[in-house]
UniProtKB/TrEMBL annotation:
Entry protein name: GTPase Der
Composition bias, Basic residues: 463-479
Name of the coding gene: der
InterPro entries in alphabetical order: G_ENGA, GTP-bd, GTPase_Der, KH_dom-like, KH_dom-like_a/b, P-loop_NTPase, Small_GTP-bd
Residues binding GTP 2, per UniProt: 204-211, 251-255, 316-319
PANTHER family, per the entry: GTPASE DER
Positions annotated to bind GTP 1: 9-16, 56-60, 119-122
Chain segments carrying region Disordered: 446-486
Transmembrane is among the record's keywords: no
Organism name: Roseisalinus antarcticus
């Protein structure tokens, strides 16, 4: 694992712009209205050959009460605690403000390692602000222009000792061993480690209670919650230990219907949410018990399945339900009818507010993750295949019976299988479905996408050269017409 850098500074100094430059994608929102960045956000940064984790924070504010600004400040303090090194950004054009001074004081006390950066200093702009910056007592300021990419090699040089120290410490840690998916008879699964934590995205409509749920899980007020819809504007990620399981959680902006996306900000937020689905291994689709399985919920669940993620459906605000038994029966029925592609996926009821059901949710996530990682031994797979063929032989188009010769699992996460077949193009879809459902039931793989490919003996590895999904593809999915439920 690489070291972690937290970018802090008062609103509008250019933190998000710098974050974007380091991460190399438009992951953070940039806007010229102060206070746009509301939560912590993490990304993998590249600076020349250097790789590290960068955290972008909310704007630091003086307010100490429980106002939104006060809470943002608390979040920032947490970010600094999480980081190995802290980049304190000021606006060189505006010079040192009283707010900068106050937070410099806090940072001096809190963080072992602070790098002071005077941003917006492209060309000769901000010269006097740069000089003023010395008065903050944090050493020589780094001259930066996040927007124009100036000062990046100097930043790299300042981070080198941090990277070196971190690498030395990390050397003691155990190496990560990847699962060999090519062969083996064991039905084994891969366990999360600190280096590769369990990655969970919580997705759902605005106001479903995503932030409340994550706060409850983490047990501290790391995310902001509030009654107004859309308070979580961006997708952010949080690393923590979930009762012994290293975990990374992605909270996403509520995925609104396209028509309701009015301004630029919200449009970007939806894209961020989709990106979180892509990063995740397990997607928790959070429904509001009062309004479950709306079109948008179905689309998100379908998208997660198509992207090959393990899915857990959680029905929130269960504390508000009075007729729990009847409601649960209706929910299960609707789930089966509307999301047949997720057959067997866990459906759990929770109350993010009271914390009821969170143990069950954790269990469901862990078992979905285990299934997603699972591997079926080749010999049991082939015994199974001949039983399936015997019970229900493939058709014989033109009098020639299609032969299924051999099956093997070629990948995990999610499980992918290849069956060698004499006439793959002639085998009907329904037969493939029969096999997929059989795999799901007989090898106990509920609720995970299963990929099954038919290949003739001459075909090469079907996974070779396969393109990874891209955010634009994800966007296209979301933009599709009404959900058909097929
Ligand atoms: N001239 C100049 N403008 C910059 C530079 N970096 C950022 N800006 C502008 O400063 C404004 C604020 O940038 P952001 O990156 O949104 O600032 P922030 O610190 O993340 O703000 P909050 O989210 O409010 O905390 C935007 O209009 C940027 O285009 C720079 O290097 N030079
Ligand atoms: N009764 C009840 N209310 C809840 C529960 N979970 C969340 N809420 C309330 O629902 C509202 C929305 O919760 P948030 O956690 O902000 O929702 P969100 O999904 O993160 O919302 P966006 O940021 O808009 O995407 C808040 O007023 C919460 O207090 C629950 O389990 N029971």
């Amino acid at each position: 694992m690489s070291f972690t850098l937290a970018i802090v500074g008062r609103p509008n100094v250019g933190k998000s712009t710098l974050f974007n430059r380091l991460v190399g994608r438009k992951l953070a929102l940039v806007d010229d209205q102060p206070g746009v960045t509301r939560d912590l956000r993490e990304g993998e940064a590249r600076l020349g050959p250097m790789r590290f984790t960068v955290i972008d924070t909310a704007g630091l504010e003086e307010a100490t009460d429980e106002s939104l600004q006060g809470r943002m400040r608390k979040l920032t303090e947490r970010a600094v605690q999480m980081a190995d090194v802290c980049l304190f950004v000021i606006d060189a054009r505006a010079g040192v403000t009283p707010t900068d001074e106050m937070f410099a004081g806090i940072l001096r006390k809190m963080s072992a390692h602070v790098i002071l950066a005077a941003n917006k200093a492209e060309g000769r702009a901000g010269e006097s602000g740069l000089l003023e910056a010395y008065s903050l007592g944090l050493g020589e300021p780094l001259r930066l222009s996040a927007e124009h990419g100036e000062g990046m090699s100097e930043l790299h040089a300042m981070l080198e000792p941090v990277a070196k120290e971190h690498a030395e410490r990390a050397e003691a840690a155990a190496p990560v061993v990847d699962v060999d998916v090519e062969d083996g008879e064991e039905h084994e699964s891969w366990e999360p480690t600190e280096a590769r934590p369990l990655q969970i995205a919580v997705v759902g409509r605005p106001n479903a209670g995503k932030s409340t749920l994550i706060n409850k899980i983490i047990g501290q007020d790391r995310l902001l919650t509030g009654p107004e819809a859309g308070i979580t504007r961006d997708s952010i990620s949080l690393a923590f230990d979930w009762e012994g399981v290293p975990t990374r959680l992605f909270d996403t902006a509520g995925m609104r219907k396209k028509a309701r996306i009015q301004d630029k900000l919200e449009k970007m937020s939806v894209t961020d949410g989709l990106r979180a689905v892509r990063f995740a291994e397990v997607v928790v689709v959070l429904l509001d018990a009062e309004i479950p399985f709306e079109t948008q919920d179905l689309r998100i669940a379908d998208l997660a399945e198509r992207e090959g993620r393990a899915v857990v459906v959680a029905v929130n605000k269960w504390d508000l339900e009075t007729e729990k038994q009847d409601k649960l029966r209706d929910l299960r029925e609707a789930f089966e009818r509307l999301l047949p592609q997720l057959r067997g996926a866990p459906l759990v009821t929770v109350s993010a507010k009271t914390g009821r059901g969170l143990d069950r949710l954790r269990e469901a996530i862990l078992s979905a993750h285990a299934v997603w990682n699972s591997r079926v031994g080749t010999s049991s797979l082939n015994r199974w295949l001949s039983e399936m063929v015997e019970a229900h032989p493939p058709p014989a188009p033109g009098g020639r019976r299609i032969k299924l010769r051999y099956a093997t699992q070629v990948k995990t996460r999610p499980p992918g299988f290849v069956v060698m077949c004499s006439l793959p193009d002639k085998l009907p879809e329904s037969y493939t479905r029969y096999l997929v459902n059989g795999l799901r039931d007989d090898f106990d793989m509920p609720g995970t996408p299963i990929r099954l490919h038919m290949r003739s003996q001459s075909d090469k590895n079907p996974y070779k050269g396969r393109k990874k999904s891209t955010p634009s593809r994800l966007r296209k999915h979301l933009g599709k017409g009404p959900y058909k439920g097929t």
